[in-house]
Amino acid sequence: MSDIAAQSNCVSHGSLAGEFLQSLSFGALEDLFSLAGLKNYEPNRILFTEGDRSSSVEIILDGEVRLFVHAGSGRRLIFRNACAGDLLGLAAAFAGKSQCMTAQTIYPCSIASIRQEEFMGFLLRHPAACQSAGREMSRECFRNIARLRTMGLASSAQARLAGLLLEWSAAGQQTNRGRRFRVPMTHGELGDCIGASRETISRTMSDLQKDRVLELRGSLVTILDPSELETRSIGR
Fold first, then answer.
1. pLDDT score recorded for residue 236
2. CATH architecture classification, 155-233
3. Which CATH architecture has domain 3-152?
């Protein structure tokens, strides 16, 4: 399928995810996808690295992309997994600066890539889309602040992990047992989110389960005692 056919198919079926794309009018969507080139990536492909010159804005149509920064000594700090509907490189495009994070595919991904100058021209033609892009950057800023608060203010690995789980639970599903959500990372990757070892994460998760603070079923976590998890997140 050609790029243009794939883009038209996405627009006509109304199956797009993400607040930015969903906020656009049909005409704006058509204009946006007329500028985009569709790219398919295998897992573990680097899309861009922190310090790279910003040249495009990427929109994830399918798959997941991990966003992280290098922390020295071969370590990294994971900020989040971006998914369908998320925009990558938006802040760098607005500021005209280099990328501040590294983006790496986790699963096979389909991504719409739009040259930076063409994306900025699109926003000038569609003021409502410009407002939506501003809201998208604000959401990203608040997510990053929440992660840095978890890293910087929590005194222990247990407190940092509890804070991270509370952060993710906000988007979870309320059940009769508690709020349930999927943890999209291995224990080693969780450690990269909060600056802890895989062994520390495994031990802490086991302790939280034994104390009936949460329940683990594969990658699904159910918070059974949110007040206790909140207490542990502040190191008490």
1. 53
2. Orthogonal Bundle (1.10)
3. Sandwich (2.60)
- H, E, C per residue of the chain: CCHHHHHHHHHHHCCCCCHHHHHCCHHHHHHHHHCCEEEEECCCCEEECCCCCCCEEEEEEECCEEEEEEEECCEEEEEEEECCCCEECHHHHHHCCCCCCEEEECCCEEEEEEEHHHHHHHHHHCHHHHHHHHHHHHHHHHHHHHHHHHHHHCCCHHHHHHHHHHHHHCCCEECCCCEEEECCCCHHHHHHHHCCCHHHHHHHHHHHHHCCCEEEECCEEEECCHHHHHHHHCCC
Comparing 8 with 19, the larger pLDDT belongs to: 19
Q: Is 90 exceeded by the pLDDT of residue 76?
A: no
pTM score, whole prediction: 0.78
